[in-house]
Design goal:
Length: 154
């Protein structure tokens, strides 16, 4: 009969394996409590923009400019720019607000998940849920897009 361990070593194996087993169980249990994936944006439920749906669910739609961009790029594994920016409204299409009203946003993981394009000059249309009355709460948007020449003629 062949033994992997001498008879004297066999009695010490459980003490040596216990820490490894504990670490293995801890790692296995942590995968069960992993962060759930974000729900899709209500404007892109199937990965493609549905502007009719976006208009329907948005409490406000406004056209304006993006300024005061502060980039916060995150390295691997996130690989996302959690930028802060200001949206200045020039025209309200849905909802009410002041002309030249500014709305501060920060790109997030689930909320405000759409990242800024490289070019933020020009006009953008922004769609969003009700803006909070409490200034301590973050503002949210569902979707924004650059205004093209064909949209300016509307």
């Amino acid at each position: 009969m062949t033994f992997l361990f001498s008879p004297g070593q066999a009695e010490f194996m459980p003490r040596r394996l216990a820490p490894l087993l504990a670490v293995g169980l801890l790692l296995a249990s942590r995968t069960g409590t992993a962060t759930k994936p974000c729900p899709p944006s209500p404007c892109t439920p199937k990965g493609v923009v549905d502007l009719a749906k976006c208009r329907e669910i948005s409490d406000w739609i406004a056209t304006g400019t993006i300024s005061k961009v502060v980039h916060h790029p995150a390295d691997f594994p996130l690989l996302k720019d959690f930028a802060e920016f200001t949206f200045t409204v020039s025209k309200w299409e849905k909802g009410t607000g002041k002309s030249d009203q500014t709305i501060d946003f920060r790109v997030g993981w689930c909320d405000n998940s759409q990242t800024l394009p490289k070019e933020t000059k020009g006009l953008f249309t922004c769609y969003g849920p009700t803006l909070p009355k409490d200034p301590a709460l973050p503002n949210r948007y569902f979707y924004f897009e650059p205004v093209t020449d064909s949209k300016k003629e509307r």
